[in-house]
Amino acid sequence: MTRVFSGIKPTGHLTLGNYLGAMRRWAEMDQHRSEALFCIVDLHALTVDHDPARVRRLSRQAATLLLASGLDPERCTVFVQSHVDEHARLSYLLECVATDGEMRRMVQYKEKAAREQQRGGSVRLSLLTYPVLMAADILAYGTDEVPVGDDQTQHVELTRDLAVRFNQRYGHTFVVPKATHPKVAARVMNLQEPTSKMGKSDDSGPGIVYLLDEPEVVRKKVMRAVTDSGRDVVYDRQERPGVANLLEILAACEGGNPEDLSGVYESYGALKKDTAEAVVEVLRPVQARHRELCADPAYVEGVLRAGSEKAREMARPRVDAAYRAIGLLPS
Ligand code: TRP
Prior knowledge:
Elements: E1 3-8, H1 16-33, E2 35-40, H2 52-68, E3 76-80, H3 86-95, H4 100-104, H5 107-118, H6 125-139, E4 145-147, H7 153-170, E5 178-180, H8 215-223, H9 241-254, H10 258-261, H11 268-294, H12 297-326
Parallel strand pairs: 1-2, 2-3, 4-5
Helix pairs in contact: 2-11, 3-6, 3-12, 6-7, 8-11, 9-11
The structure holds tryptophan.
């Protein structure tokens, strides 16, 4: 069976973009058609300035929301990265296969490092090596497919390069994975800035709908979304990014197609109203289930414990094999 691995970084509250772009598909499709692992990648949250209590809280919340959005521990493995030592063990080996130049060419690193330096801050070394840890996350499990947003394509390409290089030098050890991108609503955009992604790590903003936003807050944010000059409600990503984003969100919530909604609405106001209600309805069952799970923290903890045990069993033989292949003595 195809093996699928994806990760969520606990650096911010999960958003509608995370849900429509990734989580919903994991629950509805991936866990049914493949052997899937979903990981709260908490080690990655330490690559930038962080508050320990916040990381802890966001990790627990991300796990709870993954389950609330329909991931079933009987069908897939949900776990926390730092609970499975194999990630860090393998990461070091891959650092011995990757080059410094390769790391410095990563677009996300260049952007984040530039931003950090502009603020006068320093850049953690782990930010540079982050993609190697991500490669370890993926390669430890013999992953075939990595469902991610477009911004992660370069990191998955690097993962492939490292797998091929390791296999060539030291003998076949790793499966060479590929990135997959969902077609519909792969990218939900910020409601206030419809040309940039609705990311969880951007500080709170009126353009971001969080999964745990109350219905009234969701309505307010959607009703205040920026639209474009002009009046026709047509679907045109280039010329009308604000309206296109609303149409895409509405279509994604209703399981339809944004092109089919082009020309259906008479006014921006009517489109916003329907979009707001559609989002509220999509979030309702997730929030209800989240409340239930919060009342039973022992259950969530149990799921994570069982998940990390299973993940460890899956990862260990391959990581051990990599240790042997690269020239380290068996213990
Ligand atoms: N880098 C990913 C992000 O920022 C998160 C991530 C870490 C990940 N390890 C992964 C995604 C492995 C897929 C597979 O979104």
